[in-house]
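Incident review: delayed structure delivery

Summary: a single-chain prediction request sat in the queue longer than the usual turnaround. Root cause was a stuck worker, restarted by the on-call engineer. No data loss occurred. The affected request and its eventual output are reproduced below so the record is complete for anyone auditing the incident later.

Affected input:
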Amino acid sequence: PYLDGTFDKLVQRYPNRFQMGMLESNRGCPFLCTFCDWSITRKVMEIPLDRIFQEIDWLIAHQFSHFCIIDANFGIRPRDHKIAQYIAKCKQESGRPTSCYFYLTKNNHQRNWETIQTFHLAQIDCTVGLAVQDFDDGVLKAVKRGRMQSSETNRLRDRCAEKGIPTRNELILGLPKQSYRSFVQTLLLAMPPYPKHDFILFLCRLLDNTELADPKQRELHALETRRCKWVSPKGQAHGVVDEYQEIIVGTADMPTAQWKQTVHFANLASMGYNKYLMRIIFRAVKELWQISLQDYLEHLIRGMEVATPDSAFGQMWSILNAYTDSILDSNAYQLPYFSTQDRPWELDEA
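Output delivered after worker restart:
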């Protein structure tokens, strides 16, 4: 639609509305992840290179400074490096784009490093998305990600940290074979002492047509779900439509009470690590005092459980429970913050 004029009048009419241009160089995925509907195709279909280059030119001409490459596995094809080089060439000639977000292919880490270096040397900001979902081998096997090399992913993360390149581990909570104990270990592995790294936590959602949503899989893993409302923080005034999503809140290996406990632990960790509120404390706990970070966070949670309601810990405990109870009651899983009531907040933000 960039090239047939569909968007030309839109960007002229709303010059400050659009900030990021999406690019798609291929569609489909060869991997078999049971929770994902990209894997239905089992193959990758390429869009012609000439068209991709023309679309990049269109975005540059319309002054888009931020790109998002929405391929399931950017770098999976050898030609993907040519696309990265073309974007870098545009940056040298026009000053755009200033940033580019993408999802790397899972197993070709040398090619991934070449892609990252291309953007880095062109001074295009990029946060390298590392969609590991979980570090536990049993979980990865259960969702058919057993062929993916999580150890290689961590080496790529280490390599980026040496160069000061931001990285992000993407995790999914609620997958089959996860337990409270196993997911806590995944969270700890997703919190290295790197200043430009974070993790993002997704609650597992059952998508139509995926293998995990099939009745046989639901029965096999004893999946318990809730249909909950997803409310955009920007709201309908920005043209965003509220959606309903089916969220896994319990499995054979993680009963609902344990799921709730895991959500609490994960969001406390996210608040401290991803919001940079407790990173120095986390490092001191581990490196100076030789205390397990798991023990420390669980100690804080136990303190919240017994705290008086009007104390800081008591308020944090009420927020944690308000969010998980809302999900379990099939209500929204982003809530207006209690004191402001201005917009829906993520749990770690609240």
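Verification: The CA atoms of residues 97 and 147 lie 34 Å apart.
Action items: add queue-age alerting; document worker restart procedure.
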